[in-house]
Design a protein that fits this description.
The complex is a heterodimer. Chain A has no helices and ten strands. By secondary structure, chain A is mostly beta strands. By secondary structure, chain B is mainly beta. In chain B, strands 1, 3, 4, 7, 8 and 9 form a six-stranded mixed sheet that branches. Chain B is globular and about 40 Å long. In chain B, strand 3 and strand 4 form a beta hairpin. Classes of the chains: A mainly beta, B mainly beta.
Chain lengths: 116, 110
């Protein structure tokens, strides 16, 4: 079945870096836009970034522009989020999700905690 | 502050119908039929319930329906059940390839 599995979350100090991964299965990965969406503890959803099926079109929310980098490897059916210069306000569960005009499915999420 | 405005909370009794609104602008909800709705239970990932304003994915109960009028989209849940208690989010396409989110609505089944 169609499935997305995130990994790479954890505890990191302010200013540090993390790389999140999202492994896809059950569909033709190279046909789809992929997205990263996050949710701070007790808060709503926030769009982070998307990447087109070929990787040629990329978008970042203003809150992460210049610090986060999205990429994909269609041969490995995976999308990545390199997060640098992390701040306390980046603490959240990070979800990857498939799609362009709507998001389906979503992964189970991976928790990123930025704290000293 | 979220780009799309949703009520913070709504409530209803079992068997009743409720509607959650999602108000945007003429640059997103009003101009594109790309509004989607998501249900999120505590500690779980969001689940797609409605896409392209009023389409239901396979497997989603027909008690869930979506509509749009002007700059406001709506999600209606009829025949409320205890399992519908969750947070609901709307998302819309906006010009220049942007996606905008609502702040979420907590549905309580009384």
């Amino acid at each position: 079945q169609v499935q997305l599995v995130e990994s790479g979350g954890g505890l990191v100090k302010p200013g540090g870096s993390l790389r999140l991964s999202c492994a896809a299965s059950g569909f033709t990965f190279s046909d789809y836009y992929m997205n990263w969406i996050r949710q701070a503890p007790g808060k709503g959803l926030e769009f982070v970034s998307y990447i087109s099926s070929s990787g040629n079109t990329i978008y970042y929310a203003d809150s992460v522009k210049g610090r986060f980098t999205i990429s994909r490897d269609n041969a490995k059916n995976s999308v990545y989020l390199q997060m640098d210069s992390l701040r306390a306000e980046d603490t959240a569960v990070y979800y990857c999700a498939r799609g362009y005009n709507y998001f389906d499915p979503w992964g189970q999420g991976t928790l990123v905690t930025v704290s000293s | 502050q979220s780009a799309l405005t949703q009520p913070a909370s709504v409530s209803g009794s079992p068997g009743q119908s409720i509607t959650i609104s999602c108000t945007g602008t003429s640059s997103d909800v009003g101009d594109y039929n790309y509004v989607s709705w998501y249900q999120q239970h505590p500690g779980k990932a969001p689940k797609l319930m409605i896409y392209d304003v009023s389409n239901r994915p396979s497997g989603v109960s027909n008690r869930f329906s979506g509509s749009k009028s002007g700059n406001t989209a709506s999600l209606t849940i009829s025949g409320l059940q205890a399992e519908d208690e969750a947070d609901y989010y709307c998302i819309s396409y906006r010009s220049s390839n942007i996606r905008v989110f609502g702040g979420g609505t907590k549905l309580t089944v009384l």
